Amino acid sequence: MSATPLIEIKDLRIRFHGDDGRITHAVDSVDLSVANGATLGLVGESGCGKSVTSLAIMGLLPKRSAEISGAIRFEGLDLLKTPDQTLRDLRGNRLAMIFQEPMTSLNPSLTIGEQIIETIQRHRGGSRRNARERAIELLRRVHIPSPERRIDEFPHKLSGGMRQRVMIAMALACDPRLLIADEPTTALDVTLQAQILELMRELKAASGAAIILITHDLGVVAEVCDEVAVMYAGEIVERAPVDELFSAPQHPYTVGLLGSIPRLDHRPEQLATIEGMVPNMARLPAGCRFAARCPFVLDACTRAPPPLLQVSPGHLSRCIRAPLERLVS
Amino acid sequence: MALLEVQDLVKHFVAERSLFGRARAHVKAVDGVSFSLEAGKTLALVGESGCGKSTVSRLVLRLIEPDAGTVRFDGRDLLSLDANALRAFRREAQIIFQDPYASLNPRMTVGQILTEPLALHDLVPPTQRRGRVAELLRLVGLEPRLERRYPHEFSGGQRQRIAIARALAVEPKLIVCDEPVSALDVSIRSQILNLLRELQDRLGLAYIFVSHDLAVVKHIADHVAVMNLGQIVETAEADALFAAPRHPYSRALLSAIPLPQPKAKRTTVLLTGEIPSALNPPAGCRFHTRCPFVVERCRIEAPELLADSAGHAAACHRTAELPSTDAILPAAGGFSPALAKLVAAFSRKTEGAAVSGVGIQGTAPTTT
Predict the structure, then answer these.
(1) Chain A residues touching B100 at Cβ < 8 A
(2) Measuring CA to CA, which residue among B7, A103, A304, A44 is closest to residue A320?
(3) Mean pLDDT, rounded, for A2-29
(4) Cβ–Cβ of A252/B268 closer than 8 Å?
(5) What pLDDT was estimated at residue A99?
(6) How far is Cα B122 from Cα B307, in angstroms, rounded to an integer?
(7) B263: distance to nearest CA of chain A, Å?
(8) By three-state DSSP, how is residue B311 classified?
(9) Distance between CA atoms of B323 and B4, rounded to whole angstroms?
(10) Does residue A253 sit in helix, strand or coil?
(11) What percent of chain B has pLDDT over 70?
(12) Which of B265, B267, B246 shows the shortest CA–CA distance to B256?
């Protein structure tokens, strides 16, 4: 990672205050940074806090119920202290986001052209004709055939893969420096997924933007990411360069995840399973949040929350038993 | 004799009607599909959205009526069954759906959900039904005391276990699993896959496993049929298909799976163009608009599904001329010895161990 990251998250904590007075600890002490041109994978299962983290970066969490502390530094600004007006200028411009559901994130009553042109004119101004030309150019960049014609179509006329391309075109409209992609291929068929991943690689190479890719699919992470952060129950439990995460994971949760995916390269008699359940985020255990499900658990694990410590250069683990190789040698 | 034999199954849905109700356009959802399935084995139907795999799975259960073709189950012609015989058949073949949130009635307790099939088919005397429900719950790795709870109190993985228990209640020979793990998280997915395999070994169940995920299919299937636009384009023993896929479409599917191996050097066959509409499938080979190996003949003449002596069949004019598959298949990988040992720590205690010895009554556990 370079000396000055494009975005740096320090000690991010997010709590939700429910109507019934319950407080949910959605995200706890998250530290992350992404350099220009790098792709960070944010991995974890439903409810681990990965999407909430990305919404906090975009300033899209509800002010009334979400209590956010820490710092999110992006291009010299702390996004958590930035006034709404400035955030609106950043979103869709320097900061862009792609969501999972291309059907629900496009406005069904506007043509795709109108939606892209709106973004361009909002941030760049200029004439409608120029914005329209740029929109066509963007659609061509994401490989939509005959963009001159497609630009006047409504979202329902497009297939799922096409809609996701339109979403990407819209996100790229103002050359963002940071692109957050939240499960961008989860709703797509595998051949379309391959096309979209290839497109993201291509666009990253062309624009040099940084990408935060949120996904539950470790295969997708292995294909496109440089660095990976694994989240569990609101915390980052492991951070590593992508090769190391897959060859020598240092947190038991990551080990369990790797063992539980069916693979093409070998077929075990039984897949690994992570027994038990994610802890209740309103009543978290005192020690390690994974302790109840961990096969390597010690008494010490349940007493105090483990810190995120470096195991080897660039490789951090929130496990007091790391390096894990010791346990099996 | 095979448990299930399907011949030339056809189902066209009406997509558009004229003012007077005459059909104007048809979606050719299933167009001449044949396969057979042995008792105790798993056949996977694989393909992208809209390829007809789910329609096939509903046709073989006669949840929808085919336009042509035959389905034979245990030697009987399914399509000639009357209402009573059809209800009896429902005891022998069941289905599990993708979304366990939608497939369980939210107003019924788990106990009621599991008692309903027992009462409907009059399988167990009323006094013994509670005991049977407890047994079913234990069979799928849930505690019997949970029978008083409602579906919303369970996680996705637990609900899928309940759906499996409901399917098992009637002691079926065949279960259609329609994307049973697609809606589940990674670690939950592996639990359900392990459970399905374990139940198959113990109870001798046959599965039709509908999925778009080839890695999951490789893990669970004995036999695979790859579908494109209502037709089977390749079918083979799972090992043979994954070792050397013969149809360009199977190859593209296989090469498109993102592998959890960052250093894997492999070429992805990127298909260009959109999936053609089943309303108006392309002439000739239905894959020719997206095929990287297309020649003139493919645009005119539909290829036949031809099998070799080992039963590996592909419908492609150019099978013999296609390049080697080495570049698109994942290198033999697996875990380093240390990582394999760490992973093994997660496999040591399996939920099956806690419930072993509980068989379905009237069904002898298979010995394997």
Answers:
(1) none
(2) A304
(3) 87
(4) no
(5) 86
(6) 44
(7) 7
(8) coil
(9) 35
(10) helix
(11) 94
(12) B267
Beta-ladder partners of A71: A10
Dig out the tokens for A156 from the structure: 């329902």
ipTM over 0.90: no
User: What gap in Å lies between CA B150 and CA B112, rounded to an integer?
Assistant: 9
Number of helices and strands in chain B (H, E): 12, 12
Tokens of B87: 């209800």
Residue A47 pLDDT grade (very low, low, confident, very high; cuts 50, 70, 90): confident
Q: What does the buried/exposed string (b/e) look like for A22-48 if buried means 16 or more CB atoms within 10 Å of the residue's CB? A: eebbbbbbbebbbbebbbbbbbbbebb
Specify the residue for token string 């309940």.
B162
A318 confidence band (pLDDT: 50, 70, 90): very high
Mean pLDDT of B263-292: 82
Handedness of CA B61, B65, B66, B69 (dihedral sign): positive
User: What pLDDT was estimated at residue B348?
Assistant: 63
pLDDT in tens, A169-182: 999 888 899 999 99
pLDDT at B349: 54
Residues A260 and A271: their CA atoms lie apart, in Å, by: 5
Q: Which two tokens stand for residue A280?
A: 């209740």
Cα B52 to Cα B30: distance, rounded to the nearest angstrom: 6
Let me know: does A273 contact B350? Beta carbons within 8 Å.
yes
Using DSSP, state whether B33 is helix, strand or coil.
strand
Instruction: Using an 8 Å CB-CB cutoff, list chain A residues near B218.
Output: 262-264, 267
Helix B156-168 × helix B110-120 angle, to 10°: 20
pLDDT digits (tens, 9 = 90+) for B56-113: 999 999 999 999 999 999 999 999 999 999 999 999 999 999 888 889 999 999 999 9
* Chain A residues touching B270 at Cβ < 8 A: 191, 194-195, 198
Q: Considering only the beta carbons, identify the residue of B191, B212, B342 that sits closest to A328.
A: B342
| Nearest CB partner across the interface for A189, out of B48, B270, B336 | B48
Cis preceding-peptide flag for A323 (omega within 30 of 0): yes
pLDDT at B45 > cutoff 90: yes
| pLDDT tens column, A54-73 | 999 999 998 888 999 999 99
> Please, are residues A318 and A307 in contact by the beta-carbon 8 Å criterion?
yes
What HEC string does B123-176 produce?
Answer: CCCHHHHHHHHHHHHHHCCCCHHHHHCCHHHCCHHHHHHHHHHHHHCCCCCEEE
Q: How confident is the model at residue A3 (pLDDT cuts 50, 70, 90)?
A: low
- A212 confidence band (pLDDT: 50, 70, 90): very high
Which of A191, A195, A273 faces B194 most closely, judged by CB atoms? A273
User: Is there a contact between B186 and A257 if contact means CB atoms under 8 Å apart?
Assistant: yes
Tokens representing A323?
């390096």
Q: Whole-angstrom Cα distance, residue A132 to residue A112?
A: 11
In the predicted structure, residue B227 carries a pLDDT above the cut 90: yes
CA dihedral B116, B121, B125, B128 (to 10 degrees): -50
Rounded Cα distance between B145 and B157, Å, is 18
Looking at the DSSP bridge assignments, the partners of residue A33 are A8
Asked whether the whole model's pTM tops 0.90, one would answer no
Chain A nearest C-alpha distance from B12 (Å): 21
**Residue of A7, A3, A4 whose CA lies nearest to A209:** A7
Return the C-alpha torsion angle B56, B57, B63, B69, nearest 10: 40
> Which residues in chain A are closer than 8 Å to B287, comparing Cβ atoms?
none
Buried b (16+ CB within 10 A) or exposed e, A80-97: bebeeeebeebbbbbbbb
Query: How far, in Å, CA of A228 to CA of A89, rounded?
Result: 29
